[in-house]
Each structure stands twice: as structure tokens, then as C-alpha cells.
Amino acid sequence: MLQGVLLLLVLAGCGRSDTADVAQAPGEASPARIEAGRKLFARCAGCHEVGPKAGHIYGPHLNGVLGRKAGSVTGYAYSPALKASTLVWDEANLAAFIRDSEQVIPGNKMRFMSFLSDRQAGDIVAYLATQGGTQAGQDQPRP
Fold it and tell me: How does the average pLDDT of the chain come out, rounded?
């Protein structure tokens, strides 16, 4: 009987969700998760930029996104839903938005059908956490 209970506990732990890894403080992500997120960000790069010369494409640049109020970067034409949102981006809600933006902020204009797992969305957030705040000129649309 005791062996059966221990086996169930072990199996339950093996099936846990990776969402526990998503809600890390920005500096706590492993280098492997950050690198995985950098590679996955290629899926986002058609619409978003990060880095010293980042600007807006179809979506706003994502430098310094964590801790920022949703819909607040100047120079980008956000949807009314995002502008009206009171959400401040943290690791958990940004990962959820990456997974299903319409569920987090209904009526927003981001459409991303990538079928990412919770782990992959968390990896992207870990990478974005390494992309600091904006620099002068970064809040301008791309020419």
C-alpha cells in the first residue's frame, strides 16, 4: 500500500506543468532558458523588435516590456482594448498573453497562432527580461 502511494506521488510530480518555471524574477532565468527564448523570439520578430535599434513594426518594440503598463509605449498605434487595459506586464501575464492574447485582453489586435507551450512562452519572457528599457529614439515607428 505504501509503495502504491509513493508511486502515485512520484508520477504526479513527473506530470507537473512547466508553468511553475514561467513566473521567475527576470534575473533568475537560466542561460539555457534565455537562449531558448532568444531562438523562439524569431517567431515574434516579424512584428516586434528588441535591442538598441529596436523600433515598431506591426507591433511595438519590446525593450523593457516587463514592468511596463500595457499599451503605453509612445509612437505605436495600440488597439483601444490595449490602451484601456490597466495591466502591467509581469512574467506570468506576458507569458499568458503570448499564449492567448485574446483571452488576456479581449479585442486587442495581436494575432499569433504559434501553438507555443507554457514552457516556450516562459522562455520567450525569460529572453525579453534581458532586453532592458528603451533608449532615445526607440519609441519611433520604423521608416
Answer: 79
